[in-house]
Specification:
CATH architecture of the largest domain: Alpha-Beta Barrel
Order of helices and strands: HEHEHHEHEHEHHEHEEHHH
Radius of gyration: 23 Å
Oligomer: single chain
Number of strands: 8
CATH topology of the largest domain: TIM Barrel
Shape: elongated
Largest sheet: 8 strands, parallel, barrel
Helix content: 40-55%
Strand content: 5-15%
Strand order of the largest sheet: 1-2-3-4-5-6-7-8
Structural class: alpha/beta
Bound molecules: 3-methyl-2-oxobutanoic acid
Length: 277
């Protein structure tokens, strides 16, 4: 398969072909996502919860994002790889944002970066894009500033809040963002934004009318049991299969049926062995 590009994604919006996207944080998951033909991989800072066991994405560092991005890039040559700029790595100044975007691209090897926020980060988006790095925006529920939003809840429910989401989308498009994540907003606002911008929108709890959909790998495949948001559909129960496999292994070790003849190596004959005793 040929490498996914920003232009191909834009063409998909025009042709009304839906875009699929999921997260990955390491080589094996990236390998399987690529094999499934998913168009975009996000090396998301959601790794804070899914693989580090933290309660929020705030503590994630740019070094950790680079580390995981490198592994994902190795496993998935085909999808567009989005590196997530973590909290505090782009909000200080345009210079800081460009330096960290460059690091994520040069050291991590991703194709583009993503950052959270609307109008208030538009100047940062423009600076990164002008420096040569494509940017995906992320509006609606923005997990990095969840305390400011008053928790993980649906955004844009009033007319004023919905207008703010549409304004954010337009300003980000104007600043040069090539696509937008729309997280946890009413379906009709997801449709409104999708109709009003020319760049692809990818929903996560953004309703059926977005140009594409993204889910967190661990949520959709049953690998994260702490909390499952309403917008998640589970496509597999890998956690259950993992525990079943591990229990079988444990039981076979204990009853001696593993390793069996097929899993051991042969050496000297019994005769020769006797001489070694
Ligand atoms: O980090 C992440 O996984 C994300 C998704 C929720 C879009 O930003």
């Amino acid at each position: 398969m040929a490498k996914m590009t920003i232009q191909k994604l834009k063409n998909m919006k025009v042709k009304k072909e839906k875009i699929s996207m999921t997260t990955a944080y390491d080589y094996p998951t990236a390998y399987f996502v690529d094999k499934a033909g998913i168009e975009i991989i996000l090396v998301g800072d959601s790794l804070a919860m899914t693989i580090m066991g933290l309660d929020s994405t705030v503590p994630v560092t740019i070094e950790q994002m680079i580390h995981h991005t490198k592994a994902v890039v190795k496993g998935a040559p085909t999808p567009l790889i989005v590196g997530d700029l973590p909290f505090g790595s782009y909000n200080v100044s345009k210079e800081q944002a460009i330096i960290n975007s460059n690091r994520l691209m040069k050291e991590g090897g991703c194709d583009v970066v993503k950052l959270e926020g609307g109008e208030e980060v538009a100047h940062i988006v423009k600076a990164i894009v002008d420096s040569g790095t494509p940017v995906m925006g992320h509006i609606g529920l923005t997990p990095q500033t969840v305390s400011k939003l008053g928790g993980f809840k649906v955004q844009g429910k009033s007319v004023k809040a919905a207008k703010k989401i549409l304004d954010d989308a337009r300003v980000l498009e104007e600043a040069g963002a090539f696509a937008l994540i729309l997280e946890c907003i009413p379906e009709n606002i997801g449709k409104l934004v999708t109709d009003k911008v020319s760049i692809p929108t990818i929903g996560i709890g953004g309703g059926r009318f977005c140009d594409g959909q993204v889910l967190v790998f661990h949520d959709m495949l049953g690998l994260f049991e702490k909390f499952v948001p309403k917008f998640v559909k589970k496509y597999a129960e890998l956690g259950v299969e993992i525990v079943e496999g591990l229990e079988k292994f444990k039981n076979e070790v204990k009853d001696g049926s593993f390793p069996s003849d097929g899993h051991v190596f042969k050496g000297v004959s019994e005769e020769e062995l006797k001489r070694l005793y």
